[in-house]
Specification:
about 25% strand
């Protein structure tokens, strides 16, 4: 199964949102490695996990690491979120500008993380 297969398995309106997220990832991280992990689209950059996303019954879940949740605490206040996850409900527009900021932050983090030994 590929990321294309994953996205194609959903109704058109959900596919559109998943493609928007995917496009933003490649806008800010064109060299990111795209693959499936934990049965969801995943991206690696600079040898580090960038983020994951997945479609669920009522929302799209984005998994962008705990530091991201801290950095965007105020912006995420209106969304259900956990230590490293955010839920974007289908009954609300996808906050594309916020998602761009999150991806840009994660790209910066992966570029500036200490080198693995």
């Amino acid at each position: 199964m590929t990321v294309d297969d994953y996205i194609a398995a959903y109704p058109a309106e959900i596919q559109e949102r998943l493609q928007q997220i995917r496009s933003i990832v490649f806008e800010y991280a064109p060299e990111a490695l795209e693959y499936l992990s934990y049965d969801m689209p995943a991206y690696k950059l600079n040898g580090r996990q960038l983020l994951y996303f997945a479609a669920f019954k009522q929302h799209i879940g984005v998994y962008a690491m705990p530091e991201c949740m801290e950095a965007f605490e105020r912006e995420l206040a209106t969304y259900r979120h956990g230590k490293g996850s955010i839920q974007f409900p289908y009954n609300q527009p996808l906050p594309l500008d916020l998602f761009r900021q999150i991806v840009e932050f994660r790209v910066w983090q992966t570029a500036n993380a200490p080198k693995k030994k």
